[in-house]
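# nightly structure sweep
# worker-07 picked up a monomer target from the shared queue
# config: single-sequence mode, recycle default, output format = structure tokens
# input follows
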Amino acid sequence: MRKLTKLSLPWFYELLEKGECDIMDFKESLEDRDTFGKSIKNYSGSYDELARDAVAFANKKGGFLFIGIEDKNKEINPEFIYDDSKIFDLIKQVQDRTRPSITIVPHKLHVLDTDLLVLEIPFTTDLYSTTKGEYLIRSNNGNRAIQPNEMATILGEKGTIVYDQHTWNITKWQDETRVANLQKLIRLARPDSPYLKDNIDDFNDALSMSKETDDGILPTTTGVLFTGSDKALKEFPYAMVKYIRYFEDGTYRPYEWKGNLIEVADQCFAQLKAEIQSREMDFGLFHDTIEDYAEVVIRELLINALAHRDYSRQQIIEIRKYPAYLEFESPGLFPQGINIDNFLWKTNPRNPEIMDIFRAIKYAEKAGSGWDKVFTELLTKGKSLPIPEETETSVIFRVEAAVVSDKLIDLSHKYQQLTNRVPSVEQLLILQHLVTSGRSSRSELEKAKFVNAKQIQHALQELMDLELIESTGTRSGTRYIIHKKHIVSIKDKINYTKAKKQERARQKEAIIRYLDEIDTISNAEARDLLALPPGDVYYVSRLLNSLKNDGLIEIDTSSSPNKPRYRLNRK
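# output follows
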């Protein structure tokens, strides 16, 4: 049985730091009648559990089961006994419980004078279940059932995700200078990186740049794109970025880079960075430097295009810069499960090994944080959000140069002055929505594009505590608006006054409806009805007097003059 992964102590300890995740699980022992590890009375359930884990890993992107590690504290189980004679029977027990039968590769890992058993479940394009009909998938640090509507999505994604590990039968494929450059970049990013190996074969294996096959050790798509020779890179004639800058007079200037991903990223980014234009803008008592396209935005969109494009398509990446906007077009549709509405907070890398190398050299952020930085940069500078478009063959992202909201910049600065930190993406999205719409309910904010409903309560509360926004209305009628302290322009003041007038009209209507069902109401009861604090006694008195002056209600003559009650004027 050939070895798919070379295990090492640095690799093991790095995974151990992460804890259980979507590629790893720990088992203290495997129960067995004859003691495989620490003997426990019930042994049959262990194989069933192991089969479920194997199915869940195989349906995701493969993974590792570490046998002999205590789950709670990640310590080595001193009673664990590695037994070669039982390993293949163990594998057969698991395979007998999976459909189709799952390939499992055993490894021995010697740690602190103890031999641990590591079971590797390789990635494949098949969909697996247990013999009991359980279709499972790994999710963070556990397994979950696959819903029927997800099966086609998972199968579709498994068919595309594997391409960065496609092997190529090329001899003398690697360029030593490019290998040295990649090692240098990794060392600069993290001197103690477990990817750094003394042996070139181990280095290639650690970064999935080569793979052992029946035809020998062959380069993967990832290996060729990062360290391949010019000859090897000819296998990818469409691994190219074409950049065209269009000028206002109708002329244009083309640029083109192809081949090695690091070289393409460096050269393209240098050109785009050199063209950045900035201007000083005043916002009340402070001023800010606003760039047409910030470095962080350019870098994230470029690396996103390089890392997530479909390298099986004979199509190039195109970047087009017009006087008012910049757009990146990347070959291939969104990966399964990602669309124009959820790309901010949902991740599903098309080429995970390529992305891992970009992260290892710090050309990319950790999973899920790249788009956060783009959104944060754009919104704090008062700009529009990126505009996504999915064509029949590609995904396009457009960012615009213009500042569209001075108010959003002002609010972002005030937040930073009060907290010494940048607002979260959820807070910026809330502020943007309120600046644009004027007023919104909680449910309307939750439905706003890209807002994460799970994060909204904390985001709203802090913005209210900082008096950047305020609420108006009560209960189901509660609406959120920009705080009156930040109303400056005539337009803002008019919108604020309109929102307050509309709220006052709803409160009057609530009192009238109440009196239509109940005979009378007092000031205190009106405050309870409108969910107003005790300090609003005078506000409610003015509200009741206004209704009385309009002839809609009258004082109940049987009530005390000091504590009047009101009833509907039915005349």
